[in-house]
Amino acid sequence: MKGYYKAPDKTAEVMTADGFLRTGDKGYIDEEGNLKIIGRVKDLFKTSKGKYVAPAPIENIVNNDEHVELSLVGGSGQVSTMIIVQLAEHLQSKVSNPDVKASITTALEALLKKVNASVEDYERARFIVVAKDAWTIEKEFLTPTMKIKRASIEKHYVDKLDGWYSSKDKIIWE
User: Would you give the end-to-end CA distance of the chain in angstroms?
Assistant: First the structure.
């Protein structure tokens, strides 16, 4: 890319002095010399302990679970991270059954342990919240390509964070 058409100010924001494009991707070079993209710089957040967390790799682990449709890892300014999930579509209508809900709770507790065993200490989640309402494009929680709109979802739940963090529960049903 040489730059934005008739927009030198936008070009200056994304191009380095030596002509490289700042893509906004976060990555690293592995031991074999391959570039591995792990997320977006704009998605990084800092915990109260001063550690930066890239949510995408953690969300990938969560989203691979059969009980989860979508997830968001957050915790900016908090002592630990947390995870909010939208249940898989085939489970959403069944949670009114206490036995199904208990089974999902057990499965999500196992998922939380799996996630926490897979990440650095400072990335470990304290709890998983099961979202009550569907994340939709109309609610502006998803883009037209079905990616989460992190800022919109976090804004929606911001008033509940203190209660969630003060809870001792590992799985919180909204």
Answer: 45
The pTM score is: 0.79
Tell me how many domains the chain contains.
Answer: 2
In a shared domain, residues 62 and 148: yes
Angle between helices 55-63 and 98-118 (to 10 degrees): 140
User: CA 69: distance to chain centroid?
Assistant: 12
Residue 113's domain spans which residues?
44-173
List, for residues 88-139, the tens digit of each pLDDT value: 999 999 999 999 999 999 999 999 999 999 999 999 999 999 999 899 999 9
**Would you say 158 and 138 are in contact if contact means Cβ atoms under 8 Å apart?**
no
**Same-domain pairing of 36 and 63:** no
Q: Which of 98, 114, 66, 63 lies closest to 84, judged by CA?
A: 63
User: Taking the CA of residue 61 as centre, how many other CA atoms within 13 Å lie in the half-sphere pointing to its CB?
Assistant: 21
Radius of gyration (C-alpha) of the chain in whole angstroms: 19
Nearest to 155 by CA among 49, 86, 84: 84
State whether residue 88 is helix, strand or coil. Answer: coil
CA 70 to CA 145: how far, in whole Å? 13
